[in-house]
């Protein structure tokens, strides 16, 4: 137990989201604010759903264990629905604030786009959701103890970490897809996101039968990731551009390698374009602008 | 020991008061010309000074103010441009400033929470109490406990009001030397005594064997460098680090010595007091600002944390406030084409009370969710306050919104969310 488990589970659960934060969000103050506000909205949804659950618990017989369990399951589904409601509310808030945000962004005219906001909002939801699921477990894993001493599964920590990771990524993808659906008024997308979330929560009810919960959740995560990629404007072409020579050259060009187009001593840049590099052969790359 | 601590506490009250040292005075003497060269500095100072006295025990909670309130000469030239442009300029730097305040607030909270979770000294309840909370809380009777905590709060707030009024009076009658001396003594106490206590407790927790000569050397260096950085000059990052450390130390003292329920009621009362003191026309802070404006001097630079960015050396050397304003951490960001400085300032008292809230959330119960919820709530409150600042463009109290959110989230997370999340974790259900 202790340190090895702590660090292992912490990195499994929070590694990708931390990396996403550091590489895509930390540099831009506006995105950090949107992230924290997203976390706040998720927290609000959790608060309201726990209030409802708490009232239900207090109003019912605390000795009846099946009833308590049923109420907990009801709490799970209600919380999922409320999270999606708050995701929609956050979408509306961000849309309303877009003009204001355009004004406070530092770069002239480069306001944050709805797609970027969708990603950041989704990540905010995901990070907060993951943190709330995992942090207490992580702090418990630091101390002495035997996992599963009362007959529970010994894989508790690692499955918790894996589930948290899946949920964080899922929230991010759902954010992207959801906002896109709202933008284009495709209500089936919203219904799909809600049902996927309910499905994932329902699968987690199968724990500790981890074979029934973890692999399907990861399949759903991958599928939603692919969906989010295509929904946010990605395409097979951009994927291939990422990997092939074109992408390589355009990246290399930023290190100022110049390829002369002809044998004339001072090749002038093509009129109307700022090109840092020129294609070595026609048709290899379609982009010339730096 | 108790007497000493009370004395320390007493001085700490004014710790974050303005502190103009003699250099600042001499700076002021020749400041007429200098300040005109640095147009925004007077407004900056004056805005700051607004938050001067007050505070609860010792911090100076400073209202968050924008340096744009009183445009200096350079800005007056620009003032002829339409309002919309100036507003856009104001809002433009809003997001950056929010983040630049988030970072030190977060750091301070992290230091406090880390200490609370590891060093048990600050969570042990001692029989000693501060003189400002004389009523003992009896854990057996809820009604009595509530009553005593309200009485403690009344005592504490009246002490603060009295100190604020004394400070305003002192300022009105130009007893600068007295205030200076008081301030220097307070910071001495904080930097040497409290850090000695803190270090001692950390060593006890980790069972580190330490001898007195080494300890004296460490504390001496820490304290002297702190005094120099805070009251005179020092590298920017070092100044900021010292301010964060000071705020954290003060917050830890509060967490230790305020009784349980009194601390929560005091937090609530302080936010209300902050609201009244900053926004009401007859409040002591208002009077202080008006006096300062009448005299047209950059009063006490206060202990505030400024979010403006790095001062570019060589820009306008004579207008470098860093030399004169000892307590101000100033980041100045010059936009070469605009020649303008915009910043937002947050008082150390605000840091301290945010950290007290989060620290108490970490101290009571072992639940990390509560701490995280309070942290996010405070950051969002700060964000909203800065948004309001950008809209209203006048000094605003930084405590009410954040503390309200923090309190609401603390109590609701502790009582509602915690059982829910614990049940979910027990069954490994995920929402």
TrEMBL record, chain A:
Keywords: Membrane, Notch signaling pathway, Transmembrane, Transmembrane helix. One of its GO terms (biological process) is protein processing. Its main location: membrane. The chain crosses the membrane at residues 6-25, 32-55, 67-86, 117-135, 155-179, 186-206, 226-248. One of its GO terms (cellular component) is gamma-secretase complex. Residues 257-290 are annotated as: Disordered. The keyword Glycosyltransferase does not apply. It is found in: Membrane. InterPro entries: Aph-1. It is a multi-pass membrane protein. It holds the Pfam family Aph-1. It comes from the Eukaryota. Belongs to the APH-1 family. Component of the gamma-secretase complex. Potential subunit of the gamma-secretase complex, an endoprotease complex that catalyzes the intramembrane cleavage of integral proteins such as Notch receptors. This is Gamma-secretase subunit APH-1. The lineage of its organism: Eukaryota, Metazoa, Chordata, Craniata, Vertebrata.
UniProtKB/TrEMBL annotation, chain B:
Its EC number is 3.4.23.-. It comes from the Eukaryota. It is found in: Endoplasmic reticulum membrane; Golgi apparatus membrane. Residues 33-45 have a biased composition (Polar residues). Residues 1-22 form the signal peptide. One of its GO terms (biological process) is Notch signaling pathway. GO terms for cellular component: endoplasmic reticulum membrane; gamma-secretase complex; Golgi membrane. This is Presenilin. The chain crosses the membrane at residues 98-116, 150-171, 178-200, 212-232, 239-255, 261-279, 299-316, 341-359, 371-392, 398-417. Coiled coil: none annotated. InterPro entries: Peptidase_A22A, Preselin/SPP, Presenilin_C. One of its GO terms (molecular function) is aspartic endopeptidase activity, intramembrane cleaving. It is a multi-pass membrane protein. Its main location: endoplasmic reticulum. The PAL motif is required for normal active site conformation. The keyword Protease applies. SMART domains: PSN. Residues 26-87 are annotated as: Disordered. Belongs to the peptidase A22A family. Homodimer. The lineage of its organism: Eukaryota, Metazoa, Chordata, Craniata, Vertebrata. Probable subunit of the gamma-secretase complex, an endoprotease complex that catalyzes the intramembrane cleavage of integral membrane proteins such as Notch receptors. Keywords: Endoplasmic reticulum, Golgi apparatus, Hydrolase, Membrane, Notch signaling pathway, Protease, Signal, Transmembrane, Transmembrane helix.
